[in-house]
């Protein structure tokens, strides 16, 4: 039995590694191209971000590689009548599957850690790389597009020319602060990244400026506009807390909620005691619903993080759990055909349930545990197929 176990593990692991390598190359190419087009960044920066994109990509590729390697192997073994020979020797199919299940269980645990790293620390490192390269990236974007707008639309600029030394010529800008829009023109401008402050910021050094105001035109020799980059990068690549930080993050959210409610209570008490009910029109009251909803959404995301990472990591195990007996039950000589027949139902069952669980848990409609529904359904289907192949 030890010889058979070594043979099974060697063949499955070898095929798994080959499949993972091929899929990695494809996803790496997709990651670079997708990042370039979706975020509008140059090729050089996309390649710098690739190592931090790969952990998230690998968590998506590992279940597919595991399913492909196991269905190919067991479909071939069954097609060669090797399982029939083992049954004749008194070895049931589950004994051949057991070492593969153990192997995929261990790979699933590693996949959980990889997914946790990819959604937390890797995203933070991506933000660091983007900040360090932001100046070069923005200048290249202005050379090609001649305009730039921040994600929150607080600042938009249009430039006629970008010189080789990075100087901007004839820059038109529009800035929104405290719900007031300011428009102006600058004959020259320079962009730099300030990493020395408490938060990295993008500095626009505007020279020879004309600013339009209701009173008329106002001229300035020079103005420096600081744009914090932390919130900007977060909108592009949002990092989630790691599983070890979830409890602390939930406590922070609850502290912010209590602090906000105390401010509202203090303002209400002051308005009632002084008779100054105009205080009740404070923006804190007007934005209460949105603020509470945003906190609830953040809380739901944090509560979902741990079940989601364990569920996504162990999709590898459940793909194999249903894939092996299905490949044997199909009894197809063409091993690739067994894989596609197995993968299509998984696409129609697992991923829709995953999407429903994600959206429902984030909105607070479903419990975070519902994220496991796809794995549970695959597990039940796998049990049914196991019973079928052991009845022969």
How would you describe this protein?
By secondary structure, the chain is α+β, with helices and mostly antiparallel strands. It has two domains: 2-120 and 300-390, no CATH class; 138-235, no CATH class. 67% of the residues lie in helices and 16% in strands. It has 13 helices and six strands. The chain has helices at 2-39, 43-79, 82-88, 93-119, 121-132, 134-145, 229-236, 246-274, 283-286, 288-313, 315-330, 335-363, 373-390, and strands at 147-149, 155-162, 168-177, 180-194, 201-213, 216-228. Strand 5 and strand 6 form a beta hairpin. Helix 4 (93-119) runs antiparallel to helix 10, helix 4 runs antiparallel to helix 11 and helix 8 packs antiparallel against helix 10 (288-313). It starts with a helix and ends with a helix. 28% of the residues are buried.
